[in-house]
Every structure is written in C-alpha cells, then in structure tokens.
Amino acid sequence: MKILVTGAAGFIGFHTCKKLLKNGHQVVGLDNINDYYDVNLKYARLNELGITKKEAEIFNHPSKSNIYDNFFKFIRMNLENREELPKLFEKEKFDVVCNLAAQAGVRYSLENPESYVDSNIVGFVNLLECCRHYNIQHLVYASSSSVYGLNKKIPFSTDDSVDHPISLYAASKKSNELMAHTYSHLFKIPTTGLRFFTVYGPWGRPDMALFLFTKAITENKPIKVFNYGKMERDFTYIDDIVEGVVRIIEKKVENRLYKVYNIGNNNSVKLMDFIEEIERNLQKEAVKDMLPIQPGDVEKTWANVDSLIKDYNYKPGTTIKDGIKSFIDWYKHYYKVN
C-alpha cells in the first residue's frame, strides 16, 4: 500500500515508518519539525530513514530516499496548511493515512494552548477533509490514554465514559475521536483511534520520564518525582506500540466504520519500581526531589486491551526490564555516555 504517516520525524512516527517500509509498503512521511524539543533528534531520526537535514529543512518540497528496497518520501509541512495538504493528497493518491502528528505533552498544554488547537484540532480537521475528498480507505490515528482523565475504574476500557479530561491535550485527543466518528458516520470513512499508554524506548521524546530521569542521573542532577512517587503507569515499549499500529493498518477494515482501541502493556507499574530499574541499568542511584502532583497529571493508568486481542490477536508484552535496558543502551550510544 501507499501510506501517509504524519509525525514522521517524531518518536512513534519514525518507528512506524521503519516498520512499514520493512514490510514492503511505500511510505510518505510528513512532519513540520517544530521546536517543542530538540530538533536535532528529529533530524537524526529522519537521517536513519535516509533523509538529510538539508533536505528536511525545506517546507513543502518532497525529498526521497531508498530504504529496505523501497522508497521513503519526506515532506516538511504543517497539517494546518489548507492549501498545500490537499495538493499532496491529490498528487500521491494514498491508500491509508496514519496520523501520528500532534502537539504532544500534558504539562506543555498549560503553557501554550494555541499550539494544541492548531495542530491537534485544526490540523486533524484538515486531514479528515482530505480523507473525505481523496478516497482514503482507512484513517488510523493516535489518541491517548489521557482521555480517561479522572476515571476511577481500573483498568481503563474503551467502553468507559471519557467525559472528564483534565488537560487541554487530553481534550484535544478526545475531540479527535469525536470528529473521526462524525466523518465515519457522514462520509463512510473507516477510522480507527488508538489510545497509546505511556510509550517509551530508543529514540524517545526528551520530555518523557524515562529520558528525563536517565539524563539527570547521568549528569549527577536530581530527578523530579511527582506525587511523592505515588504514581503508576502502564508503560508500553515502542516496538509493541508499532506492532499494534501496523497490524491495524495492514488488516482490511470489514463490517465497521469507527473503532477505538487501547494499546498498552495491560500492566500498571509503580513509578518507584520504574526508577529503580533505571538505576539498576545505570548502576547509579538517583537523587530524588519529591514533589506534589502536577496539574493535568493522573495518578494511575492501566489499559484493558481485550478488544485488541479479540480483533487483532495482539497484546503488547515487553517488560520494563527489557524495555528500559534497550532505551539506556541507545541513550549511551547516541549521547556518547560512558
């Protein structure tokens, strides 16, 4: 198939592009390479896909590389660009769209709400309009476990009500699901939303806990432990996330238009156990700055993945022991840490 992957220079998007190319698909990657975190990491990911920094810096100009005996095309573009996005769809004639582009981060949404509206809401509507007018067979898009907000029932199920988000980021992701449902109903576009649960692994985002903790410990700085360590997360390894995404992309959609799935490890891990595993891998104890919970944070996440098992015979299973080791091995290599 010919697949558009938005957010291609991002953590999950980069890994998804690699997997799709390995599986023999033609992939066009789109990203605006914003400066929410170090753009050099984004350029380095693209370089792994055969796109140089010089090629990636130019807006609305496609660059092409050969990887895994197939072509990867990259284009730097904003999803909010109502003029250029339809031109891309008209030219490339995609079969499937995988939308992994978003302004990420719960805490940042308190400081910069406009960027969430632009990217996560305006950009998503533009994408839906293109799917509507250019005969896209299936739209697969990233949602988030944050939509569960203040829900008390554990584990979180896609059958649960998600009417109490506690961050603008979560609200923007819930709005994506609502808009996708509307377009599926009105225009018969098959859409699948994926609620990701705390994704981690090599090439990860620098604003995520594992990256922040590893960096601070290696630099002999204290780590910030929120809610005094009384947090639990369903940490999900990147390869497990991508396997789920690609299975959903590759399986023909039958007998349904709209669906939402959880993709998580189906296992809640205590934050202090997570930190202990990082310390074990770095052979160094962290200096811990114990702090109250931050606005927008939830105390516990845990995914019910029964419908993913039922429909795709798939359940993530990488342990934090294996996942953290892989990340720290990558981190030491990439940042040349002794």
From TrEMBL:
Superkingdom: Bacteria
All copies of domain NAD-dependent epimerase/dehydratase, residue ranges: 3-264
Stored SUPFAM superfamilies: NAD(P)-binding Rossmann-fold domains (SSF51735)
Keywords: NAD
Name of protein: NAD-dependent epimerase
